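thought: fold this chain, then report.
action: predict
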Amino acid sequence: MATTPTRLSKQARREQLLDTAVAIVRTRGADGLTLVTLAEEAGVSRPVVYGHFATRPGLLLALHRRLDERHRAAVTRALRSAATGADAVARAISTAYFACATDMPELGAVTAALKGSPEMEAVRHDSADRYAELMATVLRPYSPLAPKDLGLRCAGVLGAADALAAELNRRRATDDEAVAALTGLIMGSLGGGAESGRGAESGPGPAETEAGGAGAGLGTGPAGAGPAEAGVEAEAETEAGAGA
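observation:
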């Protein structure tokens, strides 16, 4: 006897569909994800899926945003527990970045499937800006560079990180080699006078920086929160605004 599908709220159904989409990409690749296959795997009618995403590119974009948010949140969590010091923070960024790249291969598959899409270009640029801002925020106490200059260098380092992730996925580099390479690039981007231990001007480290200082631009956390915490709060505010 057929069972009646569980009725979910619109947001809960969307989350269920995106979770199912991730599973499809993981097992079949991005080419195996369509609105039809999603409906079949999720056990819902096609109109339900079309009501949430309308088109396959729309589905892929929504999935990309979901995976990108998870990636960035994982990096931010790693930074919360990083030891004080430029080298420690740089290594934490590198380790978390590549751990996400290998643990979340669906993100790369979805990105490749959307290549050439004008909408994807806008999403990609927004994502890169957010990562560069987060990186510049946590590295600012360790660099004598002006914020704009440090931000530009972080944007360049992220481009190199993507290239290293591609090498890692092609098994042309080991995890340790990729982490060491990215850590070196980050340290080299800090500018002359940067110290591997304390900040460039012996200022507070990321975990000690007040929310109104280095966290500006990423949102403000509770009193005494460091840049990483402020970044997480900014993410929460962004998601809350999107769901309003």
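thought: worth noting. Residues 56-80 form the longest helix (25 residues).
final: tokens above.
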